[in-house]
Amino acid sequence: MIKIVKAPLQLEPFLNNFEDLFTKPSYCSFRDLCGALSVCDKSKTVANLCDTMADCSKGKKSRSSYNWFLSDANWDENEVAQRKVDLFIDKLCLKSNDKILLIIDDTYKEKNGIQTDGVGRFYDHSKESYIWGNNFVTSVIQSKGLFIPHKAKMYFKNSDECVNFKTKLEIAFDEIIEPLKVPKGMNLCIVFDSWWSSEELINKCINLGHSVVCQIKSDRKVGINNIMNFQVREMANQIDEKHFTKTIINVRGKKKTYYTFEKNVIIDRIGEVKLVISKRKRDGVTKYIISTDKSLSPKEVISIYEDRWDIETAHREINQKLGFKDYQLRDKNTIERFIQLVFSVWAAILFWEMDNPPAKDGSNPRTMGEMIDQVKMQALGETFEYIMIYFNLPVPKGGLLHVLKGLGLKI
């Protein structure tokens, strides 16, 4: 296991932006845990994170102190999430009229036993089976092809023991969409799949001044000219192929070809929206996507909806590389705080990469996994350099990291 003597170089500038949200002792815990999360090779339990910090680390605390920081310290993980968004907007130099996406979905974590808050029996559509575990409503902020994880909020199944029950739709709006603050004049678009496409949620988003792009189910009824009403798939079946337009978009670095048809339609209790019917000849799949912003072209609507896949990428990579679901904690608030630290590490590494891009040699941009490996190697070099200084050994010209790079190590 890599041992660190301080927060890795890539994280420090980012973490300093959060210092005012904590007391001094709590900020030290925040910095220590984020640093350990970025390099820990084992499951990201508090015990393993604490063990990742070298005993000689300045200010290292006991495991119980880090547990207390997550469970009882006076700080707000929602403020941390909002600060990440503010930094993201600043880092991308987003201005008035720029578009920013808030992508909503949910994910599961299988758990044994019943000691953890929120554990229950859920149907996991990705596995097409029931699982026993936790269910989280999750979100990602995306713009200009880059994204950061935003929030994860635990869902409780309704029961006699559940106080102040909220549906997943209510959690998405009350705890993620409504509290999100973006600069005045910026176009915030809420993106989700057909499961979330309720009239109530869409109207709440519209009332906040946000637009919505989402898929609707094939049996959803749409109206034309306040006279005719069809299930959307019936309408699609009546459209001649010659009326579909070939549309090519870039999706995650690859070109995809769609055949699209657009029409302004009326959806009961929502009003007029732009409907885009899209087909792909390769797999024959037809999708029905609506946009409350009727000025968007079919290409823009399809591109925005394709960006919804970023949240699936986030679920996978954050779990594999940063231990999003490694928590061995029981309390809802403690778990959500832990997850927010994981999300903060992702943002820190992404921002550092933006400021220090790899050489333009024609190779593909680094994946998040490769970025995290860079952080680990950097931390290892920093630890070796600390040891050399501790024993009063001469540090090579250019620093130890320079020497390691000369040996061919990618740092």
From TrEMBL:
This is Transposase, IS4.
